[in-house]
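Worked Example 4.2. Read the sequence first, then its structure tokens.
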Amino acid sequence: MAAQDLPYAKKTVKTLTSKKYWGRGYTKNGMANAADFIENEMKSFGLSPLSEVGYKQYFSFPVNTFPSKMELKINGKKLNPGKDFIVHQASKGIKTSDSLIRKDSLTYISKKGNVAVSLAPKLTWSVSQKVLDYTLIEINNKTVPFQLSNFEVNIENEFVTNFTAANVMAMVKGTTKPDSIIVFTAHYDHLGGMGNKTYFPGANDNASGVAMLLNLAKYYAANPPKYSIVFIAFAAEEIGLLGSKYFTENPLFPLKNIRFLWNLDLLGNGDEGATIVNATIHPKAFEVLNKINDQQKYLPKINPRGKAANSDHYFFSEKGVPAFFLYTQGGITAYHDVYDIAKTLPFTSYENLFRLFLDFNLELMN
């Protein structure tokens, strides 16, 4: 791997986690801007589109969003969104003030019964395809270590019934066996913004995977192998693997042509090695991977894991495609929160992972 590729990866993560991309989500055109960025990178490397429709595959779905107001005061104290509190992703917007009734050590209900407040040691957010008829708020228990008695809230939600997103795809045609395909996938979406002042950067999850996807695309574009290599950046993973589900139901080439699929998600750490989902489903491939790793000492260890519906490999596996989902372990623990930022991402095993993917693919093609 060329020495300049790690700086490229760091630059890519820094770009995708910047304000312009607003958490690569559902407000301020975050996801669409990220899709454009990825498409432009793929074009700049000289990759071909997968079909005559171009580099993007569009699909739609409903989503609950929080584009504007996100304000909360507890006992007169103003709290910061993302750091001090989060609103549950399926919550209805509300503007009200009320007293709080304690239900148990962690839960309070408003006197009117339309707002629930709970205390949590860590605030992790998500995305929802539905909206509730009440409002749920989680508060960091380190922020308010006191009895809660009253609150003022002004939260605005917008339920979008037909949000349009795009999978971004390109390929390098194989030199001798173009109908045999190796696929790399990584989801580029994250959680987006909660209000108009707070967004979730998603450095490890999953700007790190996108950086690897693009690095590999750049490499294979310059060094075309025997097999065709397809690169797919999926949208809407965080809301239920919707991008990969849509692709497997509307594939742009026969899925039976896929010799192997690598799903890249959470690649920014690695000092404790990595885990392979589907390792127990494909023991021979896992054995090959471990043999390479033992010889080259790329990672401290590679842990096997069974089947799991926890990322974009899943719907391919369900269709009989041999697939591994690799994620790294150790390092920072920031996940689905405002602290998953580019600055603290260690990239511990990044270059070695790159080499591991190349070596495995070479073994597979030979």
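Now turn to a second chain, presented in exactly the same format:
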Amino acid sequence: MNPLLSALRAAVGAANVLTEGDLSAYELDWRRRSHGKALAVVRPGTTEEVAAVVRACAAAGTPIVPQGGNTGMVVGSTPDASGREVVLSLTRMNRIRSVDPDNLTLTVDAGCVLQNVQQAAEDAGLFFPLSLAAEGSCTIGGNLATNAGGTQVVRYGNARELCLGLEVVTAQGEVWQGLSGLRKDNTGYDLRDLFIGSEGTLGVITGATLKLHPQPAATLTAWAAVPSMDAALTLLGLAHRHLGAGLTGFEVMGRFALSLVPRHFPQQRVPFLQESAYGVLLENSDQESEPHARALFEKLLEAAMEDGCVTDAVVAENISQARALWHIRESIPLAQAQEGLNIKHDISIPVSRIPAFCAETDALLQREIAGVRLVNFGHLGDGNLHYNVQAPEGGDMQAFLRDQEERVNALVFEQVRRFDGSISAEHGIGTLKAAKLPHHKSPVALGMMRALKKALDPQGILNPGRVLPLAD
């Protein structure tokens, strides 16, 4: 009998230590690029049980892979192939702990599904704005561990800006309670921000106090046809001036990216698909009234058409139409997956430089790789593009991925460096980009990161090989 497995069963109950059967839900990453092998999948139900699991693994020197909904894009929450790593699944920890309407906060377990967090806020007459395509299955702990972004960052910020406090189990199995929900607390280093975005490499997030907002009086959605990325940038500037803080979403989608949606989901109709190089999805959240919101939207679109940066536009008349427009945007990744294997990039560029980046990088890739297809879409409002590269039509997609992925990544990431951008905007580093990080972070930054990792996790048992490569 393995003494560690015995200790884990004593900590969480034998039924919650999985070692046999089909464990692919925990061992296979969302993009199905990596299928690891866990020593065990452990499913604690409380923070105290998480702490006991970490203490047992620390005593045995066994690495731990914290996991939420396993919807990550960079292979950061699934085990490697060694069979030595324990997957620490937090999905049983799914309680809404408390709602404080006066403090505009909500405290939850880390395993709460994002959609349930949104619903709990709505039930209290309030609003939690983090919104992702995977919100029906991703968990708030994973969102915070990767500092997730989504479609409302332009107004509300990333997950980091929506969190006021954390509860964290350290690598030694101690519990840090930082759930006060204070908006002002200058008593030393900001430990909360240290753990957010660290991808489970510094501690295990078990609970969070989240920042809520008043529900908008009205939320309207519009779809605009724009002739170029430069025009989309002009429209963004007009939207900021006309809508101010009411601008809560600004998504740009290239024609080829949009064309994949009706190709694979023919029941969906994309507005102005053949008439414009890009589509822009705008959201206006108004604190006054729907007529006020609609009047502002109409003035914005009138000004944009006079400017020439918009050639046509439609404003959703009801919630059903708005959802249909957003569904097009959310269907692009699914349609791209149906189209076949592809090379994904989650990059950020200074917003003002995005048109030049796209023009140069599009031309570079098409010159270097004949027939390559570019699936470009994302959150222009905050400078985040999902700049994906699809194999030439009719080609061997497996061979394309095998032969061209490193070359494509090198070309795109060098362009990102030239334009003062980041190779990861909202998906994290995981294992896919860990080896590349030293080429895109300064030695000073990497030295501080290594020092923090060594100080907080001296045994190196928390998510080893993620973010920082093992050689470091």
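Notes for the reader: Residues 3-89 form a domain with the Uridine Diphospho-n-acetylenolpyruvylglucosamine Reductase; domain 2 fold (CATH 3.30.43.10). The CA atoms of residues 237 and 432 lie 35 Å apart.
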